[in-house]
Write a structure and sequence with these properties.
Layout lengths: L1 E7 L2 E2 L8 E8 L2 E2 L4 E4 L5 H10 L4 E3 L5 H9 L3 E3 L6 H9 L14 H5 L1
Parallel strand pairs: 1-6, 6-7
Antiparallel strand pairs: 1-2, 1-3, 3-4, 3-5
Length: 117
C-alpha cells in the first residue's frame, strides 16, 4: 500500500494546493517496503498533486487543508484522504502505517509556527 503525505520541511504541509513537497512511502503489514521517497515538485498545483497520486497508485493521501473539489476527486478515484492533519511527517507516516491516523489529528511537537505557516 502506498501513502502520500504533502510536506513542508519536517511537517505536514498546512495546505494541499500550496505544497511543493511530498513524501511517498510503500508499506505492508505496518512495515516500510523501501525507504520513503521525498519529491520536490517544480510547480505548485493541486491538480499536479492529484495526478501524482494517481500515477503513483497511492491508496492514502495525508494533508493539511484541502479544497472540497480536490477531496471529492481523490475519494471518487478511491483514494482515502486524511485531511486537517498537523504534525511531523515521520510521526504521521508511522500512524498511517498503523491505520491509526484520523482527520483533524494534531500531533505533539507542533508549535504555533508550524500551524501558522
Amino acid at each position: 500500500m502506498k501513502i502520500m503525505i504533502t510536506t513542508r520541511g519536517d511537517f505536514v504541509s498546512p495546505r494541499f494546493d500550496s505544497s511543493s513537497e511530498v513524501l511517498i512511502a510503500s508499506y505492508y503489514d505496518q512495515q516500510l517496503m523501501e525507504e520513503p521517497r521525498s519529491l520536490l515538485l517544480s510547480n505548485v498545483s493541486a491538480e499536479i498533486l492529484c495526478d501524482l497520486a494517481l500515477k503513483e497508485n497511492v491508496a492514502i493521501v495525508v494533508c493539511g487543508g484541502i479544497e472540497e473539489e480536490h477531496y471529492q476527486f481523490l475519494t471518487w478515484k478511491k483514494i482515502v484522504v486524511i485531511d486537517s492533519v498537523i504534525g511531523p511527517h515521520e510521526a504521521v507516516l508511522e500512524l498511517g502505517m498503523k491505520n491509526r491516523l484520523e482527520p483533524g489529528i494534531i500531533l505533539p511537537g507542533v508549535t504555533s509556527k508550524e500551524v501558522a505557516s
